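Q: I have four molecules that I believe assemble together. Could you output structure tokens for the complex as a whole instead of separate predictions?
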Amino acid sequence: MDHEQRLLDAAGDLFYRRGVQAVGMDEIRAASGVSLKRLYQCFPSKEALVVAYLRRRDERWMASLTAYVADAGDRIPAVFAWLERWFAEDDFRGCGFANAFAELGAGSAAVRTAVREHKERLRAYLRSLAEEAGAGDPGLLAEQLLTLIDGATVTAMISEEPGAARSAGQAAAALVHRHRRP
Amino acid sequence: MDHEQRLLDAAGDLFYRRGVQAVGMDEIRAASGVSLKRLYQCFPSKEALVVAYLRRRDERWMASLTAYVADAGDRIPAVFAWLERWFAEDDFRGCGFANAFAELGAGSAAVRTAVREHKERLRAYLRSLAEEAGAGDPGLLAEQLLTLIDGATVTAMISEEPGAARSAGQAAAALVHRHRRP
DNA sequence: TAGCGTAGAGAACGATCGTTCTCCGCGGCA
DNA sequence: TGCCGCGGAGAACGATCGTTCTCTACGCTA
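A: Yes, here they are, computed for all four components at once.
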């Protein structure tokens, strides 16, 4: 495995679990086994590493969600079933993007952009699901689903109970039903 | 005005706008005009100051919301109208509690507790609104409203558009309607 | 084998953090 | 007036941060 992958593996785990500011570059070096010199050859600054972490997390998170939903019959309920499994994971600690935005959004335009791109990708995907479900206003339904997802993620992070996904899933089902009949 | 108030005013503004870790104690001293010695007499550590900031923010935030809603006819829609006004404020930067949890939750049990207490207070208030609205399962409706509020707050923070409150308010109205007829 | 380029380990650097300490000047009291 | 104690300004401290530099050891080529 090349150095960049090893660095992103170590940084991704540490940044997500403990927060970006709480993790120093030397800890990433120790966890990855990559020397500091090479670390700075791959990523010229911590900010660059954080942005790369967010981009890779976006790819993997979206890929996991879409793969799970593609295999399910009822697409939109499957989104919330996937969320519940995610919330129950041992190292779940909320939305890595919202957390990074909270930590660094005020200071780093690159982080703001990376987070917005992720949310935009998710919104577009939810819109495709809303269209497939025959919603009268798929843009509005997608926005509401996004709100339920982000809200359930915050609630699960703070309460440390994966049940937040279930009530959000019920709300989503009610909204989908609502959007079908104008 | 006494020193504690001046400190909490300055710290509250700085912590919320820029994040806790991005603000040093010396900057709080400069903004408040309170000497460093007295600062540490009032709050023996930064963590204590952060917890006091969260408690005061909880009180004021809840007081503002409940006062606004109490004056309105339709209580639950009023919650989302209040949210929209909040999102449109110049220095809006998301939920101070979720942001503090993202920054410090992994490292500070006191911060985790303060954040959970706020969310619990909000949940209890929403439950009282759900009961008043005649919901069949007020606990579930309160949980869903909380999810919509947190989700809309995250979306508004990231997108910097207050419109997130509107679609969430429409979703809330649909859910209230749903809960009335089983 | 001699010379060279490279890579890793980790010391070093300047900045900044939370926290404590020192010093000085001012007000109350005999 | 002389003394004492308190409070403020800010220097100082040790730790740690992101980043760079030095030194050493090794592999390749002639």
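A: One point stands out. Residues 87 and 162 of chain B are 5 Å apart (CA to CA).
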